[in-house]
Amino acid sequence: MKGNSSALRKGRFSEAGRIYLVTFVTCQRNAIFDDFYLGRLLVDVIRKESQFTDTLAFVVMPDHVHWLVQLKFKSLSDTVKTVKSVSSRKIQKETGAQERVWQKGFHDHAIRRDENLAGVARYIVMNPVRAELVKSVREYSLWDAVWV
């Protein structure tokens, strides 16, 4: 199959009230968010999207995002699409670049009721440590979790 993410999503649906772990990646894995200011810009977009979701945890890595989110009434596809399109416009305006910011599509995992949410959140926010970007999560500022 030729990387057609919409075909992969066909027949899938999202539920209001459900919690999802979502991952989306920058185009060609460009490390856009090595630039702290652009990372904070994305954090602001994620936080503003919280009017449609409950953000439980997230981390902005140099070339991708992990987001633990509970849907309110907007679909998961629409939620991610909004974050990606708003952040793309803001990043392009800030940098003057016209290249695509995000790869098409995203990966999601619906959290089962028996999964430990705090454990999933810990896994998310520890990404910079596992990637050896920092020695402690306290040294990395592009993350948040409701448990902290």
UniProtKB/TrEMBL annotation:
SUPFAM superfamilies: Transposase IS200-like. GO terms for biological process: DNA transposition. SMART domains: Y1_Tnp. Residues 15-127 form the Transposase IS200-like domain. GO terms for molecular function: sequence-specific DNA binding; transposase activity. This is Transposase IS200-like domain-containing protein.
